[in-house]
Amino acid sequence: MDIEKLQQFLQDNNLPKFRLGQIQKAIFADGVSSFGEITTLSKDLREKMENEMRLLSFDVEKVLVANDGQSIKALLKLHSGDLIETVLISPKPGVWSACISCQVGCAMGCRFCATGKMGFKRDLTAEEITDQILFWRQYLKKNFKSFQNSKFEIQNYNVGNIVYMGMGEPFNNWENVAESIKVLTDEKLFGFGSRSISVSTSGIADGIERMATEFPQVNLAISLHFASDEKRDRFMPVNKKDNLENLRQALKKYFQITTRKVFLEYIMLDGINDTALDAKLLADFIYSIGNTHLLHMNLIRYNMTSEDLKPSSKTRTQLFKQELEKHSINATIRKSLGEEIEAACGQLAGKN
Ligand code: SF4
User: Fold this and answer.
1) 204 CB under 6 A from ligand 1?
2) Active-site pick, 37, 85, 110, 307
3) Minimal CB count within 10 Å: which of 31, 97, 258, 278?
4) 106 C-beta closer than 6 A to ligand 1
5) What domains sit in the chain, N to C, each tagged with a CATH number?
6) Is 209 designated active site?
7) Which of 102, 106, 110, 345 is catalytic?
8) Contacts 24+ apart (CB under 8 A), 49-52
9) What residue owns the CA closest to ligand 1's atom 5?
10) How does pLDDT run across 59-117, given as a tens digit for each residue?
11) Strand 295-301 vs strand 331-334: parallel, antiparallel, or unpaired?
């Protein structure tokens, strides 16, 4: 929803200022799916808004719900014709996390990622980013009843957490991502707390430092995945510009500014980064940063998007976790949700 357009519309139609608050509440807090549902407005005004304005900056092409109801994926067609994806995940009953995209495609070219294979098309505007959350609010509200009898009964229809972990590298579109965070945390609009938002980067060092200064309360996640430059170079081209040493320095500076926990993401790739030596290198890297109590390791099962890469088995993942523990590093094994709906970023958009 373009707030400036809405303000302009109210001005052009000589409507009193209090209408703005009324409309914003209906859209952002109540999750109405159309202007027609804002019954505090006159019928004429609702019709005029329906004809002249749009609530969302995209049309919904497809919504896929996983069999267990724990993940829902939406394919969205922007007005430019480009496709993006967003995923809603329920890690536990009553909790909904929305994973949102910030670009169409991505220039970073990580070898294990479907979006990386699409290449970069364009940046999303702040409106296109925040509209993904607006869409999920509307979706949860509309489908509230159908969730009430399921195992994943929801307490309310609000998204609880937001992660910038969909298509795109947030620090390559920082201006719009930063603007979108301001809109999401604006109490008159979405009203999310900064701590319920996480930004995930493939490891752009100056972006990490900028985020610490501009949004010290927003969570940071880093797609680390490899603890040797040789392997990281092979699978993540970002490492050629920002290698592990740059990442280490960026994290040291980050912790000088904020003491928020940082999440290190590590996808488990069979025979590639899941050996005892990899665990040792990972532990060494974590210790070299310092503030180990603020670094949390997430081991993630690989959601297969590449023919030549396979997920590590449960046993190997467990052994890897135990190796880390031998080096006094705790890690959480994250379940991969929604494989049958191709929930990994870029899997659907890349096919259309
Ligand atoms: S993993 Fe993230 S940064 Fe890497 S190509 Fe995919 S979307 Fe881009």
Assistant:
1) no
2) 85
3) 258
4) yes
5) 3-52 (1.10.150), 58-351 (3.20.20.70)
6) no
7) 345
8) 49/9, 52/9
9) 116
10) 999 999 888 778 899 999 999 999 999 999 987 777 889 999 999 999 999 999 989 89
11) parallel
Q: How far is the CA of 106 from the centre of ligand 1 (A)?
A: 6
Confidence at residue 306, expressed as pLDDT on a 0 to 100 scale: 72
User: Which CB contacts under 8 angstroms, 24+ apart, belong to 153-160?
Assistant: 153/93, 153/94, 154/90, 154/93, 154/94, 154/96, 155/94, 157/31, 158/96, 159/88, 159/96, 159/97, 159/98, 159/133, 160/95, 160/96, 160/97, 160/196
pLDDT score of 242 more than 90: yes
Q: What is the pLDDT of residues 287-328, one digit of tens each?
A: 999 999 999 999 998 987 777 899 999 999 999 999 999 999
Condensed to tens digits (0 to 9), the pLDDT of residues 123-146 reads 999 999 999 999 999 998 888 666
> Ligand 1 centroid to 52 CA: how many Å?
37
